[in-house]
Design goal:
The chain is of the alpha/beta class. It contains 22 helices and 27 strands. The structure holds NADP nicotinamide-adenine-dinucleotide phosphate and iron/sulfur cluster. Its cofactor is [4Fe-4S] cluster; FMN.
Length: about 675
């Protein structure tokens, strides 16, 4: 508390006292698509309220059928739907929390035939073109927003958040490029902001004063034809005048070509845009985007750029973020690493959200703690994400765990990920693992290559093998030529790499190696450098806050000539994460990385890499060929123990190497620890 006086300070607003300044930001979970959705949502939000979040904002509910994202997406427009919501608000209030329902109309982002917008302009990320709303329909939509707010109040919510950012309907009205209307809702700035202001006034007419109304403003649109900073500030003033209690901030539209929340975005990069809103109003302002630690949050508040901080993904990663902050255990927070792998990437591919570092997220009712049948002595071999996760979770259930790691440090593959520019957040994951292993009293032996006989002799009740993977050798002639390196040589052993490079294999690691060779760590740590790289205008004087198109800004550091290859005849990077793959591809394209698919590797010799594409043979003169051709399981120890009849389990890469990632490793380890 003493360390975070501003973050932990209560806030009284609209007759409610919020216990601290931590807001769980709205996030779609898709939990509503599963069985017993409201029981799941109640457990999900209830856990965050027990973890002492000051205010929870739900994922968005549409005010009418045209406003849903896709068929079956959340909608609140009838009283008959309220019983389900009372389960959610009841769970949060029982834990002493506060919760507001977000109302969002998708507008032209809706993926169904009812899709509407201020104008009939199709969004580049949606194949469906919207129908232009008639003036009468605009007024009806305003009433629909107010109706949903009134229902939220009846359903026990403490307030609503009006979603006015990220390029949804309200934002489509406020930005000139999506609003070409000629009625009272289009044309001048005054007419364009009329829609959100009428929504706000209509809601205020329908709900009591002591009902929190949050307006989420687009602090910077990051799209050509968006609002200028002066327009954003004026909208904020008008929102305050028309009855909002709090202004939350959003950054960018879903169709922006600038990353806004990925790990490659520096922490608090958008403070300049949030401050522009804060300076315009007297009501509390919430900062959002790339805030994931109590220190970062406290620093933002003490800089005066905001009064509260919104964290959606960080509270997915650790529901107890606020409580741990209050009791002085910030080092035990399971920090969101901004990877998007288990949350946004799953949502964008029609799956439910969970979290890479916390597989319990969204599955609270599946992971109800079960007491073990007795304390066991368990050996874990391998200190990568699978081994460490298992050790922590088993230890939390009361087992006595000993972890053996052959290397001199914990982390396994994480130690390679964390050196890649834009992936420094992996350091937080390691800090969490180390702190928990230490706090739980797990015995850790580093530099210890343990053999089957020793483990059997020690008489452990169970042995868990998490020995990971070894790089796959593609097996063409010349893989032992001095020019050839593996990704482990480059990322973990500091091998010297020449100016002209060929990368064999274009999975996540091939792209990581390219980024390592070309990227600049500074860009993901220093906001000014990041903004310049992506053509963002920090003075906010331009429309949408952009100085030039992100696609044309040359990278500051393209130090090498890099050629990437894969055998599959498809575009490289097609299988990278949906929400982050485009960022990597855009950066490498701008660094002139050559990408070739459908390659057949012939050999490596003093002349370089010999390969064939479409039957035509080429020789690429390169200084180095770096193998990123996937992995194979390291299973020797497991096989030896299994044949001896020991109680042995195998997890992570040692179990299945193909397409292994930390998400699958941690999930499998956590599930095993729940049952062992
Ligand atoms: P991967 O994704 O399986 O990619 C392996 C690459 O090697 C593919 O491009 C494959 O393409 C090629 N390859 C496979 N067998 C080969 C052979 N015998 N000879 C030549 N080329 C071969 O593996 P990875 O890149 O090592 O990544 C491992 C895991 O970590 C993956 O699950 C990945 O998603 C995850 N990861 C994720 C990220 C991220 O940013 N989300 C970053 C790093 C790693 P062809 O078969 O077409 O040649
Ligand atoms: Fe954060 Fe990654 Fe978890 Fe999403 S999956 S909440 S980005 S750690």
């Amino acid at each position: 508390m003493d360390q975070y006086p501003r973050l932990m300070a209560p806030l009284s607003v609209a007759g409610i006292t919020l216990r601290n300044r931590i807001v769980m930001g709205a996030m779609h979970t898709r939990l509503e698509t599963l069985d017993r959705p409201h029981e799941r949502l109640a457990a999900f939000y209830g856990a965050r309220a027990r973890g002492e979040a000051g205010l929870i904002l739900t994922g968005g509910y549409a005010p009418n059928p045209a406003g849903v994202f896709e068929p079956g997406a959340p909608l609140l427009c009838e009283r008959s739907q309220l019983a389900e919501h009372r389960a959610i608000t009841g769970a949060v209030h029982a834990a002493g929390g506060h919760i507001a329902l977000q109302i969002v109309h998708a507008g032209r982002y809706a993926k169904h035939p009812l899709c509407v917008g201020p104008s009939a302009e199709r969004a580049r990320i949606n194949p469906i073109a919207p129908r232009e709303l008639t003036t009468e329909e605009v007024w009806q939509t305003i009433e629909d927003f107010a109706n949903t707010a009134e229902l939220a109040w009846e359903g026990g919510y403490d307030g609503v958040e009006i979603m006015g950012s990220e390029g949804y309907l309200i934002n489509q009205f406020t930005a000139p490029f999506t609003n070409q209307r000629t009625d009272e809702f289009g044309g001048s700035f005054e007419a364009r902001i009329r829609f959100p202001l009428e929504v706000l006034k209509a809601i205020r007419r329908r709900v009591v004063d002591r009902f929190l109304v949050v307006y989420r403003i687009s602090a910077v649109d990051l799209i050509e034809g968006g609002m200028t900073g002066a327009e954003v500030a004026e909208l904020a003033r008008r929102v305050e005048a028309d009855g909002a209690d709090i202004i939350n901030t959003g950054v960018g539209w879903h169709e922006s070509a600038v990353p806004t929340i990925a790990a490659s975005v520096p922490r608090s990069a958008w403070a300049y845009a949030i401050e522009n809103v804060k300076r315009a109003v007297d009501i509390p302002v919430i900062a959002s985007n790339r805030i994931n630690t109590p220190d970062g949050a406290e620093a933002l508040l003490s800089s005066g750029c905001a009064d509260m901080v919104s964290m959606a993904r960080p509270l997915l990663a650790d529901p107890d973020f606020a409580r741990k902050t209050r009791v002085g255990k910030a080092a035990e927070i399971n920090t969101c690493i901004a990877c998007n792998q288990a949350c946004l990437d799953r949502i964008f591919t029609d799956r439910t959200a969970t979290c890479l570092v916390n597989p319990r997220a969204g599955r609270e009712i599946e992971f109800m703690p079960k007491p073990p049948e007795g304390t066991k002595r368990i050996a874990v071999v391998g200190g990568g994400p699978a081994g460490m996760s298992f050790a922590i979770n088993a230890s939390e259930r009361g087992h006595r765990v000993t972890l053996f790691e052959a290397g001199n440090e914990l982390g396994g593959q994480l130690n390679m990920a964390r050196v890649v520019p834009g992936k420094n957040e992996f350091n937080e994951m390691l800090r969490y693992f180390r702190t928990r292993l230490d706090g739980l009293g797990v015995t850790v032996h580093l530099g210890r290559f343990v053999k089957a006989g020793e483990l059997l002799e020690a008489g452990f009740d169970a042995i868990v093998i998490a020995t990971g993977v070894r790089p796959r050798s593609p097996g063409f002639p010349g893989v032992d030529h001095p020019k050839v390196l593996s990704y482990v040589d480059v990322l973990a052993r500091g091998a010297a790499v020449g100016q002209r490079v060929a990368i064999i294999g274009a999975g996540g690691i091939g792209f990581d190696v390219a980024e390592f060779l070309l990227g600049d760590a500074e860009e993901s740590l220093d906001p000014a450098s990041f903004l310049a790289t992506w053509g963002v205008d920090p003075s906010l004087s331009t429309s949408g806050g952009l100085s030039e198109s992100a696609e044309t800004v040359a990278p500051a550091h393209a130090r090498r000539e890099v050629h990437m290859f894969q055998r599959k005849p498809e575009a490289l990077g097609k299988r990278l994460g949906k929400s982050t793959g485009w960022i990597l591809k855009s950066r490498l394209k701008r660094a002139n990385v050559a990408m070739a698919s459908g390659a057949v590797y012939e050999r490596v010799d003093d002349d370089g890499l010999h390969y064939t594409i479409d039957g035509k043979t080429h020789v690429l003169q390169v200084d180095n060929v770096i193998l990123c051709a996937g992995q194979e399981s390291e299973r020797g120890l497991y096989e030896a123990l299994r044949s001896s009849g020991a109680n042995v389990h195998v997890i992570g890469g040692a179990d299945v190497a193909s397409e292994l990632d930390a998400l699958r490793a941690i999930d499998q380890a956590t599930r095993l620890a729940m049952t062992v």
